[in-house]
Amino acid sequence: MKYLKTFKILEGSNKAEFNLKIRELKTKWKENDDKIDEIKKKARSEKDGEKQELLVLTLQKLAAKQEMLELDIQINRLKRKLL
């Protein structure tokens, strides 16, 4: 155990705080997923090519946001394990 470092980030927190953060991130992920589904429906029904392209770019932006949320969830799970 003498080789394990303690991180200043983890000193003032407990597992309950990380569970709350993870739960909040999961709800944001679900909301983002709902937005993606809604925009997909709009993109499929759109006749104008320019508007459809705009919706596709919005989908890509939301997909990147969703990946970042997944990474944040994994980071918080690791922090929770370190406690």
Characterization of this structure:
With 83 residues, the chain is mostly helical. 83% of the residues lie in helices and 0% in strands. It is built from three helices and no strands. It is elongated.
SSE order and pairing:
Elements: H1 8-11, H2 15-45, H3 49-82
Characterize the biggest β-sheet.
none
The low-confidence parts are none
Instruction: Please estimate the helix content.
Output: over 70%
The separation of the N and C termini measures 13 Å
**Shape verdict:** elongated
Question: What pattern of helices and strands is seen along the backbone?
Answer: HHH
- Rg, Cα atoms, Å: 19 Å
Give the structural class.
mainly alpha
For the residues shown, what is the average pLDDT?
88
